[in-house]
Structures are given as structure tokens and as C-alpha cells.
Amino acid sequence: MAKSGSWSGGCACGGVRYRVAGPLREIVACHCGTCRRTSGHHAAATACRTADLQIEDMGTLRWYQASTEARRGFCGHCGGHLFFERLPANGTTSLFAGTLDDTTGLVLRTHIFTAGKSAYVMIPPGMRAFEGYPDAGEMPVVPSP
Length: 145
Ligand SMILES: [Zn+2]
Ligand SMILES: [Zn+2]
Fold this sequence. Notes:
This protein has one helix spanning 33-39; strands at residues 6-10, 16-21, 27-30, 43-49, 53-58, 61-67, 70-75, 81-86, 92-96, 108-112, 128-129. By secondary structure, it is mainly beta. The chain has a single domain, classed as Beta Complex (Metal Binding Protein, Guanine Nucleotide Exchange Factor, Chain A), CATH 2.170.150.70. A hairpin with a 2-residue loop joins strand 6 and strand 7 (70-75).
């Protein structure tokens, strides 16, 4: 469940601000090692079509490339994690959900890479949980507008 519309968000210090004019994917929690170590917990991300994303302020935006498969955009001042993009680009950009100004209408019901989750994290009953990356068709996608 995700809605079309206009979304906005940014990091804690305001150095990076963005807008999305289009639908967002439902939120997915990722427990992979890179998400754990960059976020300090696990990551929860929605996603948009990259064409719908406008980064309005990017003075403090930095990119961290943990592997050849993806890069992560974060604020070099406050450390906030904002963006995740596949390499090469696949037309969608993931947005770390806690950076949105308003998440009304978005849901979280999928956890991925649970094989690497921290021992203290309990996946709530009723969630869809995948030990790694879901098979084709199982991963939520950005809906058509
Ligand atoms: Zn910041
Ligand atoms: Zn991850």
C-alpha cells in the first residue's frame, strides 16, 4: 500500500533536503551488515522512481560505496542516511524512511537479509521475512502512479 503524491524529507541538520513527486514503495527493513553498520540498527527504506526525486539541498550530501553493487547517500555533517542507489542505476532510488517528513499511508511488512540481523532484534509476527534478498516478484516495487 503506497500512495501517489508529494513527499518531502531531509537529514537531521537540514543540509540535505529532497522532494518526491510520485508514488513511494512500501517500506522494507534491511538487516544486511552494511545497513546495520551504517545506521547503527537496521535500515528501513521506501523507494521512488529516480525521475520523481528532486534533491533540493545537497551541500552536505556525500556518497559511500560499500560494494560495486550500490552506493549510499548520507549527510557529511549530521551523518543522516538518506539514499540508496543500485549500480548501475536501475531507475529507482531507495529513501531511508525515517528521513521523510510524513510517512502517513506507508506500511512496513517485509524484512530482508534477516540471516544477518542483530541477535536482539525480534521480527514481529505476521511480517514477511527473507533470509537474503527476496526472489523475483517477492520484493515490493514502486507502484505505477
Ligand atoms: Zn545533515
Ligand atoms: Zn541492507
